[in-house]
Design goal:
heterotrimer, A mainly alpha (545), B alpha+beta (252), C mainly alpha (192), A: 545 residues, mainly alpha, 17 helices, 0% strand, B: 252 residues, alpha+beta, binds heme-A, binds dinuclear copper ion, binds copper (II) ion
């Protein structure tokens, strides 16, 4: 009996269905919610990036020139919060919303209405957080993205900015919990026949672990923020040393979220890279099982390392947290070697998604090994709260996650819209971002080593801080140009459409066997699923297992 | 855009400086002007050299794969790579080696931490450091000597702590409002000052000179201006300074 | 051979999504209360005496309240048992009883709060006790609302088809609220 599906070729490509604004904002279709998430999140990237620009201009030269000290303090607070909670994490959830049902051969997420609700919680959170920075009497939120007590207590931060900020983060947390429940229910209950857990695309696997991390890590932070709000508005003393409270307790509760959060910020994007590399190497993944186990190991270890953000507080068991943090290098290394192994003996096509994936590898490795340095408590005695840390995490998040996001956009844009992005413009974007990024953040390692603390609006001239800062600002300008070219690329490609066809890349997972964009219920028919790359098996029945 | 013009003028020397720091063996880190700092500096060298070795291997593998196995013009369109799916022995190797490296790094790091955290039972000098929004109060207990920050809000010379070279100084650190952190970059050491808690650690300066210090934990509006300095002098000079200060503050 | 679109993506469902989702959600809720408990015990270990000597805890009334709340778990189960056997009137009757028990519990809580002799702003102990009992109280209120929703949907003729995954999921939630309370009671009133 033949088991091969006829490819559902639409003889006449249907004219793209125009989605009106009302339908856009209210349709519970997972593809719509996914796109809403991604577009909104990318908007927040532009906001956060614009704030970064103001900070870089202020820091280009010693002394203070452009913004007031108070404004600067608000800017890095909002920049950090926006980038982490409103851009990178929701972008991962958005992509998951779009891809997971397609990856597992389901018509939608398990809870479509919950899905749209979680989007609106996220959007509301965004509004509150932006308001917390600007339109708040008594001063915007200016306590840093981790809002350490007692600085964030009423006595030292009387503005309503902090309250709005807290409410915003709590909404983000609720939205994340909803999204996590939805993702787990979808993956565990809605897989098509034949789609076993060991055939799931790695992206979907990584989202499962990400969802679990969110479900475990956000609630204690909500508890912390709730107590902080009680301290601030009802006169409580949970974190107030003058009333018998404990500031270190806040730090523990925060970083118990804060650290897993940084893996929430990377696992989905490891997933993107793992989807992109095999397709353009014309090979199956190297060590599928190892990759899944590595993801699970990273997730598990990440719950036990939070206090590496507190090495200099003198209140934690440094060697324990040091050891746990160092161990995370091992499963991450497994991923690196699996990616390299996948390219090895392949036939590598240098498309734009692949270029971004390669840039990801180069950047993230630097972020990773500098993380290992920070994981040594004595070295962190010097590095903590310096630009070395700032450089470390921009190498992991901007150089890692965000480059992966660009890889993902160039990879799935054709599926989402039915139109290709321009390869040539894409290559320009990749080069500008790569050069600009390294120019911006490499000098920040130097700054940190020389002793430049983070969250400084200005610095004295002639103690070695000026030149690296200047170079860093120039790097920002190059990245800015890259982002502008990218926006132009999107505009041009949507206006003058180059039809993508169902499968422009020769993809592996199920989204490539349906139309671009997929129909409302995703699939007219599914091929038999016999491996982790059903679309490939359909093209190459002679190689299928 | 004044900074853009300056950037052009500085680009050349900046590039040179970057390469220069990387090659001098310190990898951009100050060498540590205390015994404890020198210890941390050596640990840093271990970590950097390991990192460079790891990066060289991984980058090497990536570049080699990418260049050697790029698609060539002579390939048919749609030509596939080899279709193998992994290699268990190789996987064990690339898991095992990092585990060994990580164990080594941990051992080195833990050993240094024990030495850095050690406090002498009999320090030559004790300085009480009190951090507040936005300045510092240094007291030499039993000597009646106190040095306080001038009002801040811009860069002014902060208060100066004076220490004798070659002798162990005990710093007793407190904060009386929010969290601050005491950081002297040249000592490669910082410690948080948390209200409600008292911390003590030892510094043994090995070099004379004046070292820049700053508050490293964000503490509100004028965090950036909460600087100070540490002047390390010969013990005899230190004794003289202390006597002078004592006389001066007693008279005042 | 292509499969019919209707069969696509439904997969084998051993458990209704609403039940699965509720369990996952409750796991997350558990960590939330875990955070509060962790905060309580951290502060407790740092403060002497704990509770502050001015605090005079009445154990009798909370014990009665605890008994009521535990009872309400059983009454809810009784309703579910009826519903599983197709007797929807039994479900609605027992839910009303459960709601009354929950309201009685909340009443006792309110009395406790009013007569406590300390407030959320008295000291760190007060902050923690009010925060923990307060968040639990909010969960009780949410449970009552959920049960009202069930009653409302029954009035519109729901569950007649024997599919009672919604009420079952509310049952999971209600047991959870109950168990958390037992932990709170033991912590605040017995262990202190
Ligand atoms: C995407 C986000 C992301 C990721 C993935 C990481 C990854 C890691 N991070 Fe990072 N980190 C952040 C985001 C991230 N971090 C943020 C946002 C902060 C600061 C928050 C703030 O203060 O504002 C921070 C801060 C931070 C600190 C605190 C510094 C301080 O404030 O003083 C520490 C300390 O241990 C640390 C360690 C690590 C480690 C060990 C890893 C490891 O997971 C890295 C592992 C990867 C590799 C090592 C590379 C690949 C491995 C191999 C090729 C195998 C062989 C390698 C070896 C044997 C070395 N990070
Ligand atoms: C996801 C995480 C993320 C990302 C992507 C970024 C991206 C960037 N960050 Fe971010 N950053 C953080 C997370 C992130 N950051 C966090 C958590 C902190 C700590 C905050 C704290 O201390 O509390 C921080 C702090 C931080 C500092 C330190 C501030 C200080 O301590 O004083 C600096 C300084 O250079 C900086 C710079 C940048 C730059 C130049 C980028 C660039 O990569 C950005 C590139 C983006 C663009 C170039 C977009 C340009 C925009 C447009 C083209 C459109 C403009 C138009 C409209 C808005 C309509 N960041
Ligand atoms: Cu004091 Cu920053
Ligand atoms: Cu961390």
């Amino acid at each position: 009996m033949s088991v091969t599906m006829e490819r559902p070729v639409a003889a006449q490509p249907e004219p793209p269905h125009r989605v009106g604004p009302v339908e856009r904002l209210t349709s519970t279709d997972h593809k719509n919610v996914g796109i809403l998430y991604c577009v909104t999140a990318f908007g927040f990237f532009l906001v956060g990036g614009a704030l970064a620009g103001l900070m870089r201009i202020e820091l280009a030269e010693p002394a203070r020139q452009v913004v007031s000290t108070q404004a600067y303090n608000t800017m890095f607070t909002i920049h950090g919060t926006v980038m982490i909670f409103l851009f990178v994490a929701p972008f991962g959830i958005g992509l998951a919303n779009y891809l997971i049902p397609l990856h597992i051969g389901a018509p939608d997420m398990a809870f479509p209405r919950l899905n749209l609700t979680s989007y609106w919680f996220f959007a509301g959170a965004g509004l509150l957080i932006l308001l917390s920075g600007v339109a708040s009497t008594g001063g915007g939120a200016a306590m840093g993205w981790y809002a350490y007590t007692p600085l964030s207590e009423m006595r030292y931060s009387p503005g309503v900015g902090v309250d709005l900020w807290i409410l915003g983060i709590v909404l983000v947390a609720i939205s994340n919990v909803m999204g996590g429940v939805n993702i787990l229910a979808t993956v565990f209950l809605m897989r098509a026949p034949g789609m076993t857990m060991w055939r799931l695309p790695i992206f979907t696997w990584n989202m499962v672990v990400t969802a679990i991390l969110g479900l475990v890590a956000f609630p204690p932070a909500v508890a912390a923020f709730a107590l902080l709000l009680i301290d601030r508005r009802l006169g409580g003393h949970a974190f107030d040393p003058l009333g018998g409270g404990d500031p270190a307790l806040y730090q523990h509760l925060f970083w118990f979220l804060g650290h897993p959060e940084v893996y929430i910020l990377i696992l989905p994007f490891f997933g993107i890279i793992t989807e992109v590399i095999p397709v353009f190497s014309m090979k199956p993944l190297f060590g599928y099982l190892g990759l899944v186990l590595a993801t699970i190991a990273i997730g598990a270890l990440s719950m036990g390392v939070w206090a590496h953000h507190m090495f200099t507080t003198g209140v934690v068991d440094n060697p324990f947290f040091s050891a746990m943090s160092l161990l995370i290098a091992v499963p991450t290394g497994v991923k690196f070697f699996a990616w390299t192994g996948t390219m090895w003996r392949g036939k590598i096509h240098f498309t734009v998604p692949m270029l971004f994936a390669l840039a990801f590898l180069l950047n993230f490795l630097i972020g990773g090994v500098t993380g290992v340095m920070l994981a040594s408590a004595p070295i962190d005695f010097h590095m903590n709260d310096s630009y070395f840390v700032v450089a470390h995490f921009h190498y992991t998040i901007m150089g890692g996650s965000v480059f992966a996001i660009f890889a993902g956009i160039y990879f799935w844009f054709p599926k989402m819209t039915g139109a290709m992005l321009r390869e040539r413009l894409g290559r320009v974007v990749a080069v500008l971002l790569f050069v600009g990024f390294n120019l911006t953040f490499w000098p920040q390692f130097v700054l940190g080593l020389r002793g430049f603390p983070r969250r400084y609006v200005s610095y004295p001239a002639d103690i070695g801080f000026d030149t690296p800062n200047l170079v860093s600002t120039v790097g920002y300008a190059v990245m800015f140009a890259g982002v502008v070219v990218f926006l132009a690329d999107v505009a041009v490609s949507l206006r003058r459409r180059v039809p993508a066809g169902d499968d422009p890349w020769g993809g592996n997972s199920l989204e490539w066997v349906t139309t671009s964009p997929p129909p409302e219920h995703n699939f007219d028919a599914l091929p038999q699923i016999r491996s982790e790359r059903p679309a490939f098996d359909l093209r190459h029945p002679e190689l299928a297992p | 855009m004044r900074w853009a013009v300056r950037a052009g003028r500085r680009a050349g020397p900046a590039a040179l400086a970057l390469v220069g720091t990387a090659c001098s063996g310190s990898f951009g880190m100050p060498r540590g002007a205390t015994e404890q700092g020198a210890d941390i500096f050596r640990l840093w060298q271990v970590f950097v050299v390991t990192a460079i070795a790891v990066a060289a291997v991984v980058y090497g593998l990536i570049f080699w794969s990418v260049i050697r196995y790029r698609r060539r013009r002579s390939d048919e369109p749609g030509a596939l790579g080899s279709q193998f799916r992994g290699d268990h022995r190789l996987e064990l190797v690339y898991m095992g080696i990092p585990i060994l490296i990580v164990i080594g790094l941990f051992a080195a790091s833990a050993a240094v931490e024990v030495r850095v955290d050690r406090v002498s039972s009999d320090p030559a000098v004790v300085v009480n450091v009190e951090a507040y929004q936005w300045g510092w109060r240094f007291t030499y207990p039993g000597q009646g000597v106190t040095i306080v920050s001038p009002p801040s809000g811009e860069f002014v010379a902060g208060p100066q702590m004076v220490l004798p070279v070659g002798q162990t100084t005990r710093i007793v650190l407190t904060a009386n409002d929010v969290i601050h952190a005491f950081w002297v970059p040249d000592f490669l050491y910082k410690h948080d000052a948390i209200p409600g808690r008292t911390f003590a650690f030892d510094l043994t300066p090995t070099k004379t000179g004046t070292f820049y210090g700053e508050c490293a934990e964000f503490c509100g509006l004028n965090h950036a201006y909460m600087t100070f300095s540490v002047r390390v002098v010969q013990p005899a000079e230190f004794a003289m300074w202390l006597a002078q200060m004592r006389a001066g503050q007693a008279a005042a | 051979m292509a499969q019919a679109p209707a069969a696509i993506g439904t997969g084998p469902r051993e458990i209704a999504p609403i039940r699965f989702g509720t369990i996952v959600f409750l796991a997350s809720e558990l960590v939330f209360f875990g955070g509060l408990f962790a905060a309580y015990f951290t502060l407790r270990s740092q403060t002497n005496p704990w509770p502050p000597s001015t605090v005079d805890l009445d154990v009798a009334r909370p014990s009665v309240a605890t008994a009521l709340l535990i009872m309400s778990s059983f009454t809810f189960v009784a309703g579910l048992r009826g519903a599983r056997a197709g007797r929807l009137t039994s479900l609605s009757r027992w839910i009303v009883v459960t709601i009354l028990l929950a309201l009685a519990f909340l009443g006792f809580q309110l009395l406790d709060w009013v007569q406590a002799g300390f407030s959320v702003s008295s000291h760190a102990y007060g902050t923690m006790v009010y925060a923990m009992t307060g968040f639990h109280g909010l969960h009780v209120i949410a449970g009552v609302l959920l049960m009202l929703v069930i009653l409302g949907r029954m009035a519109q003729g729901a569950y007649g088809d024997g599919i009672i995954d919604g009420p079952e999921a509310v049952g999971y939630y209600w047991h959870f609220v109950d168990v958390v309370w037992i932990g709170l009671y033991a912590t605040i009133f017995l262990l202190r």
